[in-house]
Specification:
The chain has 17 helices and seven strands. By secondary structure, it is an alpha/beta fold. It is a single-pass type II membrane protein. It is found in: Golgi apparatus, Golgi stack membrane. One of its GO terms (cellular component) is Golgi cisterna membrane.
């Protein structure tokens, strides 16, 4: 949504860094069932200091004639010097290599538990989904990520407890409109106004000033449940279509359409050689919008010097190669303002990590469009553990979340949905109003 080496809890110690190198080697050579570039529970921050994120790379155009054979999974050793590691490191390693049980993370047994006709997800997403409903392994993954707090999140507001105020769908929508400022970087902002490259390459205006307003918009997730959906014509009928990361249309037009107005990409995709960001024609159509996680309380100067991935160097390279293509960078306050809205409206603590690209893209289009249709963010009757419609990778975490607070994001979207439950069940389609179409005459709760 989307979307990978494991160095689950990077620390500054030399021991941790040494173990990072060792763990990469284990994953590449011994952990044959856990591909560090495909596992949706972790993602590399940069070549030297990886961090965990729920996202997976977008390898495309694979042969879909027959599903891959599944091999038995065996429990791996956590290493002969794991007792020397900080406890979070050990927990993450044990979780990754522990055997997958029925109903947890991956495997056909998991489909029966979560995704089958009588699975826990039901016919339509339950807006009261909780981490307590997850299997033991995925629950442990969520708890491990919760303990990290890499971005220094400071929890405030009414959320995280069962007695928090529960807002209606319209109230939630107005709360988002009032408290999430969708904006992009411009050359007049510090520190960019003092940087020669920025004054030349960053757009002079906000994305919301340059694009829209559109009447109808489609946000197309990369979910595996889009396969065999036949939604392509419906998706292309919208005035504007947003897609994510390296999600292709070529070869999948019948299910996902061919129109691309905006492509939202995370900085990992920009930095990864596998995605060929600087050379692939996949990114050359439409408007590009990039984002990178920033520390919770940092200003732009602090973030500029400590990005998760080299977003700014890649941005400069791409802009010089494609000077005519519009390319924006999302302001990092968007992700944390949105995170606060999710936490404020949940009955339990959520992961202290940025929202998924899927929800960020949805909010982006709500700022540009009168009506937004979001496809397969809430899974339809085609729900599956297949992570992406163009991949052969299976993991329930792609639907239920691990690093990103995806489970809670879906709860929020379900409560805000203005369409019928049958639209979700049959088409995987959620209907949301754009901010410009909302009538927020009463005061929605303000940011804390």
């Amino acid at each position: 949504m989307d979307l990978l080496s494991l160095d689950a809890l990077h620390t500054e110690s030399s021991l941790a860094f040494s173990y990072t190198v060792f763990l990469k080697s284990v994953l590449r050579n011994g952990g044959k069932n856990v591909d560090p570039l495909k596992h949706p529970g972790v993602i590399a921050s940069d070549p030297h200091r990886p961090i965990p994120v729920l996202s997976s790379p977008n390898h495309t155009n694979e042969n879909w004639e027959s599903p891959p054979k599944r091999t038995a999974k065996t429990k791996e050793s956590t290493g002969f010097f794991s007792h020397l590691l900080p406890r979070p490191f050990k927990r993450a390693l044990e979780t990754l290599f522990s055997g997958r049980r029925k109903g947890e993370l991956s495997g056909k047994s998991g489909e029966a538990e979560f995704f089958g006709p009588k699975g826990l997800l039901g016919e339509v997403w339950n807006e009261e989904m909780s981490s307590s409903m997850l299997g033991n392994r995925l629950k442990k993954v969520v708890q491990n990520y919760q303990a990290m707090n890499k971005y220094g999140v400071k929890v405030s507001g009414p959320g995280g407890t069962s007695n928090r105020p529960k807002l209606s769908g319209p109230e939630l929508l107005c709360q988002l409109k009032k408290n999430v400022e969708v904006s992009t970087l411009t050359a007049d902002l510090q520190p960019f106004s003092a940087l020669a490259w920025a004054t030349m390459l960053l757009p002079p205006q906000q994305l919301t000033s340059d694009l829209g307003p559109y009447k109808t918009c489609a946000v197309v997730s990369s979910a595996g449940s889009l396969r065999n959906s036949g939604l392509g014509k419906e998706i292309d009928s919208h005035d504007a279509v947003l897609r994510f990361n390296a999600a292709p249309t070529n070869g999948f037009e019948k299910d996902v359409g061919s129109k691309t107005t905006i492509r939202l990409i995370n900085s990992q995709v920009m930095a990864s050689d596998d995605h060929r960001f600087l050379s692939s024609s996949l990114y050359s159509s439409g408007v590009l919008v990039a984002w990178d996680p920033a520390p919770f309380s940092s200003n732009l100067s602090q973030w500029y010097n400590h990005t998760d991935y080299p977003i700014f160097s890649q941005y400069q390279r791409y802009r010089r190669l494609h000077p005519q293509q519009p390319f924006y960078i999302l302001h990092p306050h968007v992700e944390w303002q949105l995170w606060q809205r999710i936490q404020d409206n949940m009955a339990e603590p959520i992961q202290k990590n940025p929202p998924s690209s899927g929800l960020l893209g949805t909010i982006l289009m709500m700022s540009l469009c009168k009506v937004v249709h979001v496809y397969e963010f809430l899974p339809s009757r085609r729900k599956t553990e297949l992570c992406h419609y163009y991949q052969h990778f299976y993991d329930a975490a792609c639907t239920l979340g691990a690093y990103h607070p995806l489970l809670y994001e879906k709860n929020l979207v379900k409560r805000m949905n203005q369409g019928a439950n049958r639209d979700i069940f049959v088409h995987g389609r959620v209907t949301l109003p754009g901010f410009s179409a909302m009538n927020c005459t009463t005061e929605a709760p303000r940011e804390h």
